[in-house]
């Protein structure tokens, strides 16, 4: 079998698309984490847990089974609680505190005074609810909360909506007593490299660097101690998976509808995505630099693991669909099914 088809089938399986998970917790652990914004987070898990309901998804936050933390590429991810500290430690990057606060007209001393007050929160509160406690008005409250979140001393918690992100903020120490200290950063990054190859491999050092947002040098050092095999072109696979990778069979008859920023489409560097999207289609599937961040994956339809079209949500009238090529009625019915399930899930 062609290497591209083998890579496609293997990654599709490891991403729990051709091997659905029983629970959202199991799906999250399998892919390390999903972008936390809504509706991406609930829809990414729905694609991997067909039986998912809104209530089961909400329990991830309410029962503290998963946490929303700064992680890969400095974005907020929803990750399993048991993995959160090491993911946070492995991906954390320092920021210039004074410069960011200066934009909001806040001194470092005042910021620390505000932090001391808002870190007394024991239950999630919205920015509006926190303003009187903080003594801060306008956009400055958002800047302070983002900074506290990036430091890992505050957590975002969903307020329950599936379509859009309405979040409260709570002190990390009050929500999870164990905190987000994942130990030695070098060891945490090496652990994350192993988790990445398990979920996204075979992959290159460049892919891991892109996914984490770290320089290639750090990515290479993290992968150096792992037991891997190079299957060609720098693609590394965990040694223990070598035999299973050789046995993988081509995808046939599969259809998936994935949201914006899904882990399947966001796990590899731009020049490493041929396994699931033809190079000629990348400009249509990913956000151009002039519009936003380079490489933001749009909502896509996969047929046998490869991008076959795009879709979008509308406030009225349900999802819209754009297929790149003509498909037969059987495939079209397979696409319509997940689209209808998405509409029912979000309405529920």
Present the secondary structure layout.
Blueprint: H1 3-14, H2 24-31, E1 34-35, H3 40-46, H4 54-62, E2 66-70, E3 76-80, H5 81-91, H6 97-103, H7 108-118, H8 127-134, H9 140-151, E4 154-158, E5 167-171, H10 172-175, H11 185-200, H12 205-212, H13 216-224, E6 228-230, E7 236-238, H14 242-247, E8 255-258, H15 282-285, E9 300-303, E10 306-312, E11 320-323, H16 329-347
Helix pairs in contact: 5-11, 11-13, 12-13
Can you characterise this structure?
It is a single chain. The chain is α+β, with helices and mostly antiparallel strands and 348 residues long. It has helices at residues 3-14, 24-31, 40-46, 54-62, 81-91, 97-103, 108-118, 127-134, 140-151, 172-175, 185-200, 205-212, 216-224, 242-247, 282-285, 329-347, and strands at 34-35, 66-70, 76-80, 154-158, 167-171, 228-230, 236-238, 255-258, 300-303, 306-312, 320-323. The chain contains 16 helices and 11 strands. The strands form 4 sheets. The protein has a 4-stranded antiparallel sheet, with helices on one face. It has a 3-stranded antiparallel sheet with strand order 1-3-2, with helices on both faces. β6 (228-230) and β7 (236-238) form a beta hairpin. α5 (81-91) packs across α11. The radius of gyration is 21 Å and the shape is globular.
